[in-house]
UniProtKB/TrEMBL annotation:
Belongs to the membrane fusion protein (MFP) (TC 8.A.1) family. It comes from Hymenobacter armeniacus. This is Efflux RND transporter periplasmic adaptor subunit. Residues 219-289 form the CusB-like beta-barrel domain. NCBIfam families: RND_mfp. It comes from the Bacteria. Residues 81-199 form the CzcB-like barrel-sandwich hybrid domain. It holds the Pfam family BSH_CzcB. Residues 370-381 have a biased composition (Pro residues). SUPFAM superfamilies: HlyD-like secretion proteins.
Length: 396
């Protein structure tokens, strides 16, 4: 009986032991891989925490010798003027219409002047009377019959009437409206029978004549580019009607002073137009090729450290961060000109984080331009687009 109980108790404890061994094995199989993963993760986190941060860098580059600057321009003819009547009357005939080329002195229209003709007839009659009176007094032979003062008064009256006739005849010559210079008629405001007067009030002009063999383009150059504007500087004249084509132009003069309200320099650019392809009044752009006036460096705009009152960049020297104050020049959008503080070749940190400190050890990674997105390419901008903003960029 006791042997039977002892045998049953042994089997029980053996079963318990087997169960414990099985559960222990299962526990070890599940725990040990997880323990190794946690240990590796902790080691990796510790290594990352103790490692130097990695920053993206790009080199500062010496600025090119030339900068392009594209600005909108107002285009005018080389010479232009309104033609007014110089005598009162009615248009008898006209012989020049818009678009017609005329020569200096060519008759554009003729005016009848009935009132002026009547004034000339009266003035001639008065002249004849004054001449007769003077001759009569001058022919008196009796000494002392007339005074010298009476003779002088008659002579003066005769001369005044002569001058009056000459003045009216000079006005009568203006019955023929002529072109003041060779050019093209761009406005005609007359018809046969139109009443005209010698007034130059707005709207009373008869013609407008323009000389278009050369054009004048007026450009407002910003203050920071004004020192590079010189007489004789060559430029490109661009119009939307001729995409991809640049007409040669040249700076001929500037205002010599900046506009106080806009801080810009009014600059006149002359454009040859012997073939008449270009039209005055058109919207246009002028592209300048400006020489560099002082040594400078070009940096990416995102290399500038944000915040603060003074401009500065973060450079990497011998694997450590160094903050360098700079003096910025012209803004080219995605690039900046640095006038002082850099020499070129420095490794600049792009998008520097606020956590970077002076002298901190870092690892560097060279900047690589992003890949072009998949899909159709974006539409190309229209050449010489009138709605395009002012553009300036360093020439590479």
């Amino acid at each position: 009986m006791s042997d039977s109980n002892s045998s049953g108790s042994g089997r029980f404890w053996l079963l318990i032991l087997i169960v414990l061994v099985v559960f222990g094995g299962l526990f070890l199989l599940g725990y040990m891989p997880r323990h190794k993963q946690e240990k590796a993760r902790d080691a990796e986190a510790s290594q990352v925490a103790n490692a130097s941060p990695t920053v993206t860098v790009a080199p500062a580059k010496a600025a090119p010798d030339t900068t392009t600057l594209t600005l909108p321009a107002d285009t005018k003819s080389n010479r232009e003027t309104f033609v007014f009547a110089r005598a009162n009357g009615f248009v008898k005939s006209w012989s020049a219409d818009i678009g017609q080329r005329v020569q200096a002195g060519q008759v554009l229209a003729e005016v009848t002047t009935p009132e002026l003709d009547q004034q000339i007839a009266e003035a001639r009659a008065n002249l004849g009377l004054a001449r007769t009176s003077y001759n009569r007094l001058a022919g008196v032979a009796l000494p002392g019959a007339i005074s010298k003062q009476e003779l002088d008064a008659a002579r003066a009256q005769y001369a005044a009437q002569q001058a009056a006739v000459q003045q009216l005849l000079a006005q009568q010559a203006f019955r023929r409206i002529t072109a003041p210079f060779s050019g093209i008629v761009t406005q005609r405001n007359v018809e046969v029978g139109t009443l005209v007067s010698s007034s130059n009030a707005p709207g009373s002009q008869l013609y407008k004549v323009e000389q278009t063999d050369k054009l004048r383009a007026y450009v407002q150059v910003p203050q920071n580019f004004a020192p590079a504007i010189k007489n004789g500087l060559e430029a490109d004249y661009l119009v939307p009607e001729f995409p991809g084509r640049a007409f040669k132009a040249k700076v001929v003069r500037d205002a010599g002073a900046l506009d106080a309200s806009t801080r810009t320099l009014l600059t006149e650019v002359q454009v040859p137009n012997a073939r008449g392809e270009l039209r005055p009044g058109s919207y246009a752009q002028v592209r300048f090729h400006l020489p560099r006036t002082a040594p400078s460096v070009i940096i990416p705009a995102n290399a500038l450290v944000p915040g603060g009152t003074d401009a500065r960049v973060a450079t990497v020297q011998a694997g450590k961060i160094h903050y360098q104050p700079i003096v910025t020049g012209r803004d080219f959008g995605s690039q900046l000109e640095v006038a002082q503080g850099l020499k070129g070749g420095e490794q600049l940190v792009l998008n520097p984080a606020e956590t970077l400190t002076e002298g901190e050890a870092v690892q560097t990674k060279a900047f690589t331009p992003p890949a072009k997105p998949a899909g159709p390419p974006p539409p190309k901008p229209r050449p010489n687009d009138p709605d395009a903003p002012r553009v300036s960029s360093p020439v590479k």
